[in-house]
From TrEMBL:
Molecular functions (GO terms): aldehyde dehydrogenase (NAD+) activity
A GO CC annotation given for this chain: cytoplasm
Protein name as catalogued: Aldehyde dehydrogenase
Stored Pfam families: Aldedh (PF00171)
Catalytic residues identified in the record: E223, C260
Amino acid sequence: MAAQSDSHQSNTFAEAASTLVNELRATFVSGETRNYKWRVSQLKQLYKIAENHEPEIIDALLADVGKPPLETVAYEIAMLKNSCKTAIKELKHWMTPEKVRTSLTTFPASAEIVSEPLGVVLVISAWNYPFLLSLDPVIGAIAAGNAVVLKPSEIAPATSALLAKLVGEYMDNSSIRVVEGAVDETSALLQQKWDKIFYTGNGRVGRIVMAAAAKHLTPVVLELGGKSPVVVDSNSNINLQVTTRRIIAGKWGCNNGQACISPDYIITTKDYAPKLVDALKTELESFYGKNPLESKDLSRIVNSNHFARLTKLLDDDKVSGKIVHGGEKDETKLRISPTILLDVPRDSLIMSEEIFGPLLPIITVDRIEESFEVINSGPKPLAAYIFTNNKNLKEQFVKTISAGGLVINDTTIHLAVHTLPFGGVGDSGVGAYHGKFSFDAFSHKKAVLYRSFFGDASIRYPPYTKTKFRLMKALMTGSIVGIIRAIFGKS
């Protein structure tokens, strides 16, 4: 009986998802979303959501992940508003067809690249930055002229409910909708035919999304993650206090390590590691006090499942004796203090998966150049960081490390630069967004060639004589000398 009920419920979800997609597709076909005024009006409405509802957004993120209000305002609300302002300001320019050069073979002709919307798109967002990561991709989808379904994460239920409410109140619901729910609802949505799917989350679910998309040949953007390394150079007289503060800001100051671009582990030399650990301890105490479990400036672990996962990483026999700072836990409050582990074996559990929490292992090498081999021996990360004043080391880092993005002498802040693409490579993701890259992610670049009836050349048409053969060959290679020689019968 339960199986029949589950089957009936699944069919109901699938029917509702199909109806929703059909309704949005009808709106898209009407041409409403292609209109510049519509796009700008909806972007302005998105901005109003962030502008008018800051207290509710702060409260929702406090309820979902215990996120400090400053982090919510700075890293979610302000960044979303900046994305809206950039899109509103640049939209006409982004929509303008791009004129391109033509070749001798099509002379006389002109050509352009036209950005057209893909159609009806699905955005599946993550729980760790549930406001920003839900609406930032939607900005790109709207700017490009699409109809959108947003599926917020059920792991952040307060934010999900708030997004459903606010989008329902502020946005054009004939084109932009929010679907709440968990696995069943997401599965029903993935069964539908979309024109693009944008997913933010982990690689395991990313593979499920990609497999579902493949059934309809639907293109995807997958914003995943990985083990983002930090290389700390011991030989270039870096400012150690600034270095440790920036590592802490990127690790524990970003949702207590629950961020896709948080530093996942540090690599430094054996000799330098104790000095680095001491500096990290000093700054951590300065930021979060002697009892960080009571700090209001650290997010909690999102739920008991993630708490258990992180506890398992710490309890691994290979690393349980490697803790040099922190390690305190409060299961009832889902809190884990900033934890540093020194000389962690590379084959330990904590080094086999993305940590996504407040644990920071340090791997030591004899020479700092060996760190590049360590990084490149694993899957390509979403971000990679290095602290050094050595010009050659910076150049080698940029040249040899393949990652979604690199930052020299800081962590995570490339996320805020809208002129840079944000996305992964290999296991850390497919595609990129932010700024115009968001617009491009949800657009098709349509090639358009214009010709008149003037200049019709018989060389294209049979019979294919030797002269035509020589001339066509010269035209295709673009050689003026060859064309002249062919005309005058010279090979």
